[in-house]
C-alpha cells in the first residue's frame, strides 16, 4: 500500500480506509485485482503484483466536480495509472460527464502526468445494460483520455449489464449470469482482518473489469516505462484478441482490417501480448488534431417513426498542413440537437472506408430530455484508418415512443 498514491477526500486526511458500513468494499476489491501480493496465502494474486497501489476515498460523501478533479490529479508525478469504476447514473436516460475542473484534471494528467508521458486513466464502461444505457452518454468513459473497458463472461459472451458503445476500446473477463458464470476472486474488506473474510469470490460487473485492465497496463509500463498515454492505447488496440468473443454478433472489420465491436471494442485484453509489444515499441509521433468545419445549418428531424436524416461532409484530414492526420486514432463527432424523446434517436457515423459506428443507440428510457448540447461522441472504431474522404452521419428516429413535434439538428 502506497501512501503517496492515497488520499481521503471525504474526511480530508491521508488515510483512505473505508468506513465500515458493509457497503464500502468496492475499492478494496478493485485494488486487490491489480496488486494483491504474489505468494499470499489468502486469495488470488494481483495482475501486476509488483505495482504499488493507493486508494482515494471520494465516493463516501458529497461528490463534486472539485472532489473528482482532486482524485484524478492526485500526485500525477508519482501515480502512473488511475483506475476508476464509477461514473454517472446507469439509468438509461442520463447524458452527463466531467465538469470543468475534472475536465482540466484529465487534460493536465495527459499533458503533465508521468513526467509528460501522460497519466493513464482506465475506466469501467458502465453497468447500465439492463436499462439499455449507452456508454457514449457517460462523458468519463466517452473521453479520449480514458481507456474504456467492457466485460465478457467466462464463455466469451455479452453479460446482461454490458453497455454497448463506440468509445469502448477493449474487454476483460468478469461476471455473467449469477450461479452459472463465475465471478472475480479478489481481496475483500474486513475491518477486523479475519483471515477467512479477507477474500471474496463475488466481485462483479465492469467495475471488476477495469482493474484487470489497469493491471495489464501496469505490466506494459513495467516492461517499457517510456510509453506515452497514446502508445498504451495503441498497444491495447493491437494486442486485444477478438477470437474468444466471436460468438457474439456485431463484429465489423474496419478500414485498417481490425475487427471491432460495440460490445467489446477490439477484443479481450491480452497481458502477455501487451508486454511483448511494449518491449519492442517505438514511441508514436505527436498527436495531430484536425477539426473539420462546423456544419451549422439547422435541419429538421422528422417526428414520424422511421424517419431518417443524412448529412455528408468531405474531410481532408488537414492534408498539407502542420496538423495533417495520416491515420486515425480517436474520432469525435460533436452533436447539438433537440428532439423529444431523445431516446428515440439513433446516430450512426460512417467513415470513408465504409466503417459504420453507432454513436448513439436507442435508449427507450431516455424519455425525459430533449437536447444534446455539443456532445462529443467518441468512436475508436476507425483506429488506423485514413481520414480523407466522405463521412456520413445518419440520424434515425426509430424509437417506439410517439414524438409530437419535429426536432432539430443544429
Ligand atoms: Ca480517513
Ligand atoms: Ca452508463
Ligand atoms: Ca474513453
TrEMBL record:
Any one Gene Ontology BP term:
protein processing
Q: Which UniProt keywords apply?
A: Cleavage on pair of basic residues, Disulfide bond, Glycoprotein, Hydrolase, Protease, Serine protease, Signal, Zymogen
Residues covered by region (Disordered): 1-28
**Which InterPro entries does this UniProt record tie to the protein?**
Galactose-bd-like_sf, Kexin/furin, P_dom, Peptidase_S8/S53_dom, Peptidase_S8/S53_dom_sf, Peptidase_S8_His-AS, Peptidase_S8_Ser-AS, Peptidase_S8_subtilisin-rel
Annotated Pfam families: P_proprotein (PF01483), Peptidase_S8 (PF00082)
Query: Would the keyword Protease turn up in this protein's UniProt record?
Result: yes
Q: Which Gene3D superfamilies match?
A: Galactose-binding domain-like, Peptidase S8/S53 domain
Any one of the GO CC terms: trans-Golgi network
Its Gene Ontology molecular function terms? serine-type endopeptidase activity
Ranges of residues in domain P/Homo B: 283-410
This protein's superkingdom?
Eukaryota
Task: Give start-end positions of Basic and acidic residues composition bias.
Answer: 16-26
PANTHER family, per the entry: FURIN-LIKE PROTEASE 2, PROPROTEIN CONVERTASE SUBTILISIN/KEXIN-RELATED
Which family is annotated? Belongs to the peptidase S8 family. Furin subfamily.
Spell out the protein name for this chain.
Answer: P/Homo B domain-containing protein
